[in-house]
Amino acid sequence: MFPPSRILRGNPRQRNPNNPRKKDGAARRGWNARPPLDPNVLIERYRQDEMNALALIHNLAQVVQFQLELKETVTPAHVHGLHFAFCAVIDGVEYKTGIGKSKKEARLQAAQYALEDLLPAIEHLKSALPETPDFPPPLLVKDPSDFIRRTSHGGSSVNLQIPQAVRFQLNKVFSPHPDISVCTSTTAAFVIQTSAGFQVVAFGTGNVSTRESVSSTGRIVHDSHAVVAARRSLMRFLYRHLLMFFSQTAELKAKSIFQQSVGGDLLALKSDVAFHLYTNQLPKGAAQMHSKLRLNPLSVSAWQVNNEMGLHLSVEGKIFSVLSATFDHSASKLVSMSVTDKLTQWQVLGYQGALISHFVEPIYVQSIVVGDSGCSDIRGMEISVNQRVEGITSQLPMHYCMVRPHISLVPQVATSTSEVALVTQSVNWSEGDGSIEIVDGLEGKTMEGSPFKSGSALASRLCKAAMLHRFRLLAKETQRHDLLAASSYREAKRMAKPYQEAKSMLRAYLLQQGFGAWPVKVSVSDNFGV
C-alpha cells in the first residue's frame, strides 16, 4: 500500500515572484519553508468562528498542498436577478457553485460548499490512516509552466498551435492515402518548437500489440500503440540530427537541433528547441483511473484503491494492474507496460532511450496535450505522470531529473470512430522520410502494400534491429570504437551506465512507493547482434 502523501500532494502552487514576504528572491518551489500548521488546528479555529471559510480553504491549500482556484462561473438558471457565481476547483475537481450578490459573498459560499466535502475527508483521513512521516523536502524539478507562459507565438497559445501543427501534417501525409485515413483515429505526434514556430517531426498511429511470441532477431515491432510508434519515430528523427551534427558539412551541422553542452562531453538541445507530445486518446493505464477515485483529493478511498494508481500491463489488448491477483504473469506470451507507465518513465529517463543517451543529455517533453473529445478530466494523468515519481530527482545521476510536463486538454485533431477497435494497422513517419510506413500491428511487420518497405523481410524501420543499425552508423561517424565493440543490442544498452542507473533508481522508487514491480524483460528479446 502506498503512502497517503502520494495522493494528498497536488502540484506546487504558483507564487508571485515579487511577493515581499519572500527572502531575497530565494527560489521556494513546492513547499512552504515555514513550519506547517496542523490542519486540525485550522479547522477548530474555523468552527469557533475565528476564521471564515475563505481563509480556511486558502490555508488548507498551503498546508495540505493542493491546487486551489476560485473560479467565476455561470449563474444557475433558477437564480433570478443580478447575482455572481463562483465555484472552488481543487486539483482540477469542481465543487458546488456558490451564489452571492457580491463577488466576495459568492466566493465565500463557494468555499463553504467545498469545505462541506473536504473537512470530513481530512478528519476521516487523520483517524483512519497510519502515522506517516512529514512531507518530503522541496523537490527542485524543471517546471515548464513559466516556459509555457513565455512561449506564446504569433498571438495564439501553445495549446492551440500544437494541434494545428498536427492537423496540418496529418492532412499533408494522409491525403494521398484516403483508404487508411481511419488509422488517424489513434494518433500521437511529437511537435518541435523553435523560434520559427511549431512543426511535427514524428508521429505514429495504432492501438494494438503483436500476437507473435517474443522475437530473438529484433525485427518484430511488439508494441504498435500510437504513442510508442511516435516515440520510436522521434528516435529516428534524433538519429538524423545527430548525424547532421557530426557531419563534415558546416551547413548540415548548423541545421541540427543539437549543440555541445557546456562543460560536458554530451550534446544538448539548442536553447530555443523544445518538444511537446500530442495524443488524441487518454493513455491506457493509471491515467484512466476511475473519476470517483479523485472526486476528493483527500479521500480515504484514494489511499486504499492502489490498483488504480499502480503500474499496469497491456496483455492481448487488455489492461491489468501489476498488483492485481487476476493476472497470471506466466500465462501470457507477450506483456508490455501501459502507455501511461511508459510516459512516466520517459519523463524521468528521457525520450531518447539508452542508445542515444551515449551521445546526448536526456530529452524531455515540456507539455503533453490530449485531444480526446470524450475526455473531460485529466487528473488521473496528472497524478500518474507527475506525482507518482515527484520525489525521485535527488536520487538520480547527473543530467537526469523528473520533469513535470504541462498536461492539458486541447481541440481534437482526428475524430475517433467506432471502427477504431477493428484497425490493426499502425502508421509511422518522421521528418526526412519520403513516405509513410504501414505496419501490421498484429504481425509486427511492414505490410506488403506499405508505401515504404525496407526490404523483402518486411522488417519495420521502427524495429530494434533498425535502431541498432542507426546506432552503429552514429558510433562509426563519431569513431566510438568502444560502442562498435558491443556484441549485441543488449550490451550496447547496458554500456549506457548513467541511463541504466537512472532506470534502476526509477523502478526501485516505484516499488518502494507501493506502485508495484516493473516486470523484467525477457532476455532473448535484446540478445541479437548486427
UniProtKB/TrEMBL annotation:
DRBM domain sequence ranges: 52-120
Region Disordered, annotated ranges: 1-33
Signal sequence residues: none
Record PROSITE patterns: A_DEAMIN_EDITASE (PS50141), DS_RBD (PS50137)
Coiled-coil residues: none
Example GO biological process: adenosine to inosine editing
Protein name as annotated: Adenosine deaminase domain containing 1 (testis-specific)
Annotated GO MF terms: double-stranded RNA adenosine deaminase activity; double-stranded RNA binding; tRNA-specific adenosine deaminase activity
Keywords: RNA-binding
CDD domains recorded: DSRM_ADAD1 (cd19905)
Record domain A to I editase: where: 202-528
Domain of life: Eukaryota
SUPFAM superfamilies for the chain: dsRNA-binding domain-like
Species of origin: Takifugu rubripes
GO cellular component: cytoplasm; nucleolus
InterPro entries listed in its UniProt record: A_deamin (IPR002466), ADAD1_DSRM (IPR044455), dsRBD_dom (IPR014720)
Pfam families: A_deamin, dsrm
Bias type Low complexity, positions: 9-19
